[in-house]
Write the structure tokens for this entry.
Amino acid sequence: MPVSTATVATPRPGRYIKQLVSHLGHKASAEVTGDGRGSITIGGGTCVLSPRGDHLDLIVAAQDLDTVARVQDVVARHLVRFATQEELSVDWSAPVAGQDIQILDPVLGEYLLAHCTPADEVLQELVVKTIEATGGAAGMQISHDEGTFLTMLVKMVGARNAVEVGVFTGYSSICIARGLPADGHLLALDVSDEWTTIAQHYWERAGVADRIQLKLGPAIEALRALPADPAIDIAFIDADKVSYPAYYEEIVQRLRPGGVVVLDNVFLGGRVLDPAYQEDHHVAMRGLNDLIAGDDRVDSVMLPIRDGVTVARKR
Ligand SMILES: C[S@@+](CC[C@H](N)C(=O)[O-])C[C@H]1O[C@@H](n2cnc3c(N)ncnc32)[C@H](O)[C@@H]1O
């Protein structure tokens, strides 16, 4: 489904949302939701309007390009007409469908990998072993630039106490553990005995096994069993996407002020912004991305590293 977005600078985003919904509500289906967003559906295309500080964010999605253009035109014309005290500029992005979004040009991806601290022998071997042992599942492993970023974040946060949700064959655990001091602790959660057996071997090889405690079983149960006090310095979430909102909630409550939670795959290959994708994990990730952006417990930034990485720091 083609999607197009625009960001309009205005100190009054909420006022325009109400005005548009009220005006267009006579001819189209339109509403303002509890969180102040507007939704207007015109002839099979929908525009979602969200207030964000001094901006109004617009997303149009429709079955085809003609309908996208029609909805864009109606929304932009009315916005400009309602703006009697200021001049609004609505510049729509070229429409793309979620599955067509190329987050990183492959050539740039290679260049980027060639320009970060290189992976050592252990990590290089783990990449090869993971492909041999798991075949197609090897794509779940984080990339080296993301791993380097994790190690750096752990050091920058001065973390001693870390949690990882989603170990697989252990690449990200090694990267996190390497950022911890010698007496640091990483609680590593996964359901797979087979994959984490490989992880444990490579934790030994990397010399970080003594800092990592593996717990097998559903991660949500292990998180809920943690003490309620805010003792986590850093957490990395990279497991079943549908459970991300639950993982985030359990972790954010236990993060110490200044602690950080990192979430992988927040773009879902671009599908997160395409309303044609409505499976449970799409809906869960879309809702969580919105929630984090408005969560006043944290400051957050979404980074275009590979499939999207959100970093949220507890206030
Ligand atoms: C994307 S992989 C993690 C990749 C890993 N971070 C790395 O760097 O290689 C997702 C992992 O989450 C685990 N997983 C899936 N559902 C889970 C659950 N409910 N609780 C704990 N782990 C789960 C899978 O077994 C898998 O190993």
Remarks:
- The chain has ten helices and 13 strands.
